[in-house]
Write a structure and sequence with these properties.
The structure is a homodimer.
Chain A (H helix, E strand, L loop, with lengths): L4 E5 L13 E6 L4 H10 L4 E5 L2 H9 L4 E4 L1 E2 L2 E2 L14 H4 L3 E5 L1 H9 L5 E5 L4 H9 L4 E6 L8 H13 L6 E2 L1 H13 L3 H6 L2 H8 L3 H7 L9 E4 L2 E4 L2
Parallel strand pairs in A: 1-9, 1-10, 2-8, 2-9, 3-7, 4-7
Antiparallel strand pairs in A: 5-6, 11-12
Chain lengths: 239, 239
């Protein structure tokens, strides 16, 4: 029997190096897209449609559908949209039963680049253990895709990949170097995720945008159980 | 005054994301190309010409020049060549005063991709402190380029980048996320480099090739002082 693989792709730009078709892909964009998606789906959103640009998001309005539109620029909700990318917008009151169109550059890019995967699911600290428990039952190669920032490596997505690897140790999968490195970084970060991630470039950018509460929220481990999965162009709750 | 940058490029595939022209590039291919190059130049080799393929290396023979040709496949010297990629081939007795054509896929790829840099120098554990002392005097942006393996991230090159960052802390340069991560990995690896790197994919491959002595040699810190620098298509000793 061939040993299954657990791999980490540190940037969407490196995806061509992997056998995406033979793997379940977990897309990771901790600050804040995949955290907000996990929270929204857990809170009963019917579906979340990730798009790359504000204009694509706006195009959904023309269709006359009862969708919520989420678009943000420089940390503020864009005029004419329902809300931004803060996970606090994805509460039960706001999203239950709704379909949301979410503008997220890096997350959407990572999703599109992974489209040939056997299955694409969404990971964040919010649904960490639930996601890992499901992955353990799949008996498939697993590829953890860090969305990064404009194709640049980032620490928060990598540390989360390491957290997943940590829970999947019992699988006895073959780890690539990036998985080993991510797991080591997680071992350093685990005692105080917030402190460890505060030194990252994205953490600094978000401090400047005044969304520190969002960051803190995105680091809450296991407050949700839903696993968002891509069906067509929509993220829905995995049945 | 704009703060200078210290950045780590984790794979040559990510080089398009960096402003190479504004930086001194350090090319890193620990197992074994840049280690052998540092050792050879320190031992008096007049020049080392890195090429990507055995055929390119062989082409130098046709020129009728008194060059040493180094080419290896699967850990064995290719028939008709003078030696392989083991640093043990780059002793004073063998290389002093000679020009060597060295076949190295990943190292050559990283060099070619970095060609627009202000200057390209070669780093390895062998010349670590000498390299860092020189970098401290340059007042330029610094980009540490990990050659990786076929564009894949690898741990040994990243850990070395972290070792460089560690020595450059006093510069007060702005670090990107990859530099922070590399430095953290180095902090884990430092107490026992050999043990830490033995778990990497490349370390495993080299064990299978029976070149464990080479690996151990490549982890000797500061046994040389020469800094190889690229002039045209040749690596020579920095004056």
């Amino acid at each position: 029997m061939i040993q299954k693989k657990l791999e980490v792709c540190l940037s969407p730009a490196l995806l061509p190096l992997f056998n995406i078709e033979d793997s379940i892909v977990v897309v990771i964009d901790i600050f804040r897209a995949t955290s907000s998606i996990c929270y929204g789906i857990d809170n009963g959103a019917e579906a979340i449609i990730p798009v790359a640009k504000v204009e694509e998001c706006a195009a959904y309005r023309e269709m006359g559908l009862d969708y919520l539109l989420a678009a943000e620029r420089d940390g503020a909700v864009v005029d004419g949209f329902d809300f931004g990318n803060s996970p606090f917008s994805y509460t039960k009151e706001k999203v239950a039963g709704k379909t949301i169109v979410l503008t997220t550059t890096n997350g959407t890019h990572a999703l599109h680049m992974s489209i040939k995967a056997k299955q694409i699911v969404i990971g964040s600290f919010l649904n960490l253990t639930s996601l890992c428990n499901w992955l353990k039952t799949q008996n498939e190669n697993i590829l953890l895709v860090c969305a990064g920032w404009k194709n640049n490596f980032n620490i928060e997505d990598t540390v989360f990949a390491g957290a997943v690897a940590d829970q999947l140790q019992e699988l006895d999968y073959k780890w690539d170097d990036a998985t080993i490195a991510a797991n080591d970084m997680y071992s350093l970060a685990k005692p105080d995720l917030g402190a460890y991630l505060s030194k990252t470039s994205h953490g600094e950018r978000m401090k400047q945008l005044g969304i520190l509460d969002d960051i803190a929220f995105c680091l809450h481990v296991d407050i949700t159980t839903a696993i968002p999965v891509l069906k067509g162009d929509k993220l829905v709750k995995l049945v």
